[in-house]
Structure to design on (173 residues):
């Protein structure tokens, strides 16, 4: 059957379904409770410096992520441990390409800008001023995407005045 023989309503419905499928592929559902798989992850040591030279400690990555997506907002609840003990952090991300200000777990102001890029949730957090005597902004870039076998892949790049430190994390439900 040629397109000219498809009733206008049928063509409209088909195009709407096609567009909805394309949008869903660009914005996958990351919701769920995810557990870190350390043996499949590349985890930067706590306090690490560029080139992999850390100051001791263990991984400060989330052992568990709980992600919800609703009303254009993505909430990521990070639960894990570090040399300082158990911690929980909540990140609220609005992937609209606009900067949004909020407060981090230490009471500092953080600006977050997030977008979807080819099925990857990418957001950048910028914290004015450094920490531990550093000057200049501290920038963290996060990339969340679904991987093979239903895994969640998270890349995190910390850009500090001392250089860049990267972690590549794998989570499963």
């Amino acid at each position: 059957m040629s397109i000219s023989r498809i009733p206008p309503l049928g063509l409209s419905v088909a195009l709407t379904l096609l567009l909805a499928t394309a949008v869903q592929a660009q914005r996958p559902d990351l919701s769920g409770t995810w557990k870190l798989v350390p043996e499949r992850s590349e985890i930067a040591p706590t306090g690490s410096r560029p080139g992999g030279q850390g100051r001791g400690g263990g991984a400060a990555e989330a052992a568990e992520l709980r992600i919800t997506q609703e009303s254009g907002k993505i909430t990521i609840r990070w639960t894990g441990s570090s040399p300082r003990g158990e911690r929980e952090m909540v990140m609220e991300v609005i992937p609209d390409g606009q900067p949004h200000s909020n407060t981090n777990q230490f009471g500092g102001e953080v600006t977050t800008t997030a977008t979807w890029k080819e099925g990857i949730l990418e957001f950048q957090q910028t914290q004015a001023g450094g920490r531990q005597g550093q000057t200049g902004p501290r920038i963290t870039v996060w990339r969340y995407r679904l991987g093979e076998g239903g895994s969640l892949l998270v890349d995190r790049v910390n850009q500090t005045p001392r250089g860049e430190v990267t972690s590549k994390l794998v989570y499963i439900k």
Summary: The longest strand covers residues 73-82. Residues 13-24, 48-59 have pLDDT under 50 and may be disordered. Helices lie at 8-26. The CA atoms of residues 130 and 136 lie 6 Å apart.
